[in-house]
Specification:
The chain is α+β, with helices and mostly antiparallel strands. It has 22 helices and 18 strands. Residues 1-25 and 369-376 have low confidence and may be disordered. Bound molecules: 6-diazenyl-5-OXO-L-norleucine.
């Protein structure tokens, strides 16, 4: 269901003018129909979480304080994806020039085995990797968020987490979207007694306006305030996680929890038409894939093709086909597998790939073999934040599918992830996103599963001009790509850039997924005549983005029309 946008008005006239008026290249400026703020901005998929972030900024916190506050708030108010029991990535560009990423992706437990999801005939049992306790990796979110706060924040744990304790303890009114979401997943929830206890009602379905209280989750958050990471990875919370695991014949141990560590990784960087791209390195494929795509597309004058024209869709598709083929072969946890990052993001390599693209569709089989089907869902979540000093934070966090493994830790009140499905359980067999993998992403104890999450910050002259990211499994990378192109090449304002219809291609399956409004029927026919297969898709990605005017430093945010989030800024005092 599409959300009515209340915050920003749209003008078709301005849109047309933008489209057909040549603008400055290599520059982001505002176009006159954006609400501009100077004191910071928070954009997240949930309005209550955005409010928590804004209050933190208002009380003097920096973007990192706000990011941690929003992350904990999402674990309460947006349990479909917000989490304590999952993992994520944070890309940070500080006003002092520092740029780095935090990797708090889940890890395979010590007892994980390469073939753990194969039956006696050697066939992949997807239900084992996708639902129930065996699907869970060792959670990283609490470690990552507390690392960010302790090393780059300015506030105490109590300051940033207490708003979430309050939301859990006193409860909050369920929105229509959240009530419907709980009801939609009821048949999965009732498979697990602990989930039934917290996320179903005895007598009726949830209704919008119900007050949703989570006392055990409030206590878990209280232990994190009190004891920091030990409040999660040791002591009572750890005991509850391990008890849940043992009760369901799972493999997560105290040792796994105690040994979990966040890793500070260098950003993966690219240059695109004079802009610098900062994004997430492996174990995400997102940053490398985004930069590889931009490098290929830099060889083409996209603007002259016309936004979402048939030729534009063709070139994007052909670039995507090649990049996703590389993803399946070369990407995995860099602590376990030597990912050839420099080669993949080199301009020369991109030129070589570009030279293979002709005016008709290529065959994916000529690029690398395989055949898979995929399904898309929107159950990861992204948030973008900037503060008045210019610190920028881009976070994507996930428990993978909606409500992860569907297993809630009894007594602790949070869902565990089903991130193990992001490993390649068997070469040539796709995961739930239709993604193929290889040795690079095979299961090994302590290894982080490959991700597509693409939290990104775009810079001009070393200053942030765009903060962007999305959920959507395999479609994350291409959704982020198109918003980047919309802002940098087509000079759209942030709302238009986010709301514009998108396409997706991932090598296999061979079809281009196309949202309504990209092409009319004659454009689609032209694409088919070029040899492409096309498939309609209701929506691709769920972007939360902030654009910053280079000259004034004023900011404008957009939450995707495809969801129910909130972009909120702080005005001048
Ligand atoms: O890390 C990844 O790429 C996936 N676990 C993300 C899952 C996702 O985006 C689900 N829904 N939208």
């Amino acid at each position: 269901m599409l959300k009515q946008k209340l915050i920003f008005s749209k003008s078709i006239l301005i849109f047309l003018l933008l489209f057909f008026t040549p603008g400055l290249t290599g520059c982001t400026t505002f176009n006159g129909n954006e609400n501009l703020y100077s004191q910071g901005m928070v954009v997240s998929a949930d309005s209550l979480a955005t409010e928590v972030g804004i209050k933190i900024l208002r009380s003097g916190g920096n973007a990192i304080d706000a990011a941690v506050g929003v992350g904990f708030a999402l674990s309460v108010t947006y349990p479909v994806a917000g989490n304590l029991g999952g993992g994520g990535f944070m890309v940070i560009k500080k006003a002092n020039g520092e740029e780095f990423t935090l990797d708090y992706r889940e890890k395979a437990p010590k007892l994980a085995k390469r073939d753990m999801y194969l039956n006696s005939e050697g066939n992949f049992v997807d239900s084992l990797a996708q639902e129930g306790i065996l699907a869970s990796g060792v959670p990283g979110s609490v470690s990552g968020m507390l690392y960010a706060l302790a090393n780059h924040g300015t506030m105490s744990r109590e300051d940033v987490i207490m708003p979430s304790v309050e939301l859990a303890k006193k409860g909050f009114y369920l929105s229509e979207a959240t009530a419907n979401s709980f009801n939609r997943y009821r048949s999965s929830f009732i498979k697990f007694p602990s989930t039934t206890k917290y996320f179903t009602k005895d007598s009726a379905l949830f209704a919008p306006g119900d007050i949703f209280v989570q006392s055990d989750l409030a206590n878990t958050l209280g232990r994190i305030i009190e004891n920091g990471t030990d409040g999660f990875y040791r002591g009572k919370t750890a005991e509850l996680i391990v008890a849940q695991s043992q009760k369901m014949d799972g493999i997560i141990s105290f040792d796994d929890l105690m040994k979990y560590n966040t890793v500070v990784r260098e950003v993966v960087t690219g240059n695109y038409r004079g802009f610098k791209i900062l994004s997430m390195p492996p174990p995400s494929s997102g940053g490398i894939a985004l930069i590889e795509l931009l490098n290929i597309l830099e060889n083409i004058d996209l603007k002259s093709l016309g936004h979402n024209s048939t030729k534009y869709v063709h070139y994007l598709t052909e670039a995507m086909r090649r990049v996703y083929a590389d993803r399946s072969k070369y990407l995995g946890d860099p602590d376990f597998y030597p990912v050839p990052i420099d080669s993949l993001i080199s301009k020369n390599y991109a030129k070589k790939l570009y030279s293979q693209i002709t005016s008709s569709a290529s065959n994916s089989a000529d690029i690398l073999p395989g055949l898979v089907e995929s399904s898309e869902s929107m159950e990861t979540t992204h948030y973008s934040i900037i503060d008045k000093w210019g610190n920028a934070v881009s976070v994507t966090t996930t428990i993978n599918s909606g409500y992860g493994s569907k297993v809630v830790v009894d007594g602790a009140g949070f869902f565990l992830n089903n991130e193990m499905d992001d490993f390649s359980a068997k070469p040539g067999v796709p995961n739930q996103f239709g993604l193929l993998g290889s040795e690079a992403n095979s299961i090994e104890p302590g290894k982080r599963m490959l991700s597509s999450m693409t939290p990104t910050i775009v810079l001009k002259d070393d200053k942030p001009v765009l903060i962007v990211g999305s959920p959507g499994g395999s479609t994350i990378i291409t959704a982020v790509l198109q918003v980047v192109l919309n802002v940098l090449d087509f000079e759209m304002d942030v709302n238009e850039a986010v709301d514009a219809p998108r396409i997706h291609h991932q090598w296999y399956p061979e079809h281009i997924s196309i949202e309504d409004g990209v092409l009319d029927s004659s454009g689609t026919l032209e694409l088919i005549n070029m040899g492409h297969k096309v498939k309609d898709i209701p929506y691709l990605g769920l972007i939360e983005a902030i654009k910053i005017d280079q000259k004034t430093g004023r900011v404008s945010g957009a939450t995707d029309r495809r969801g129910f989030g909130l972009a909120k800024g702080e005005l001048d005092k």
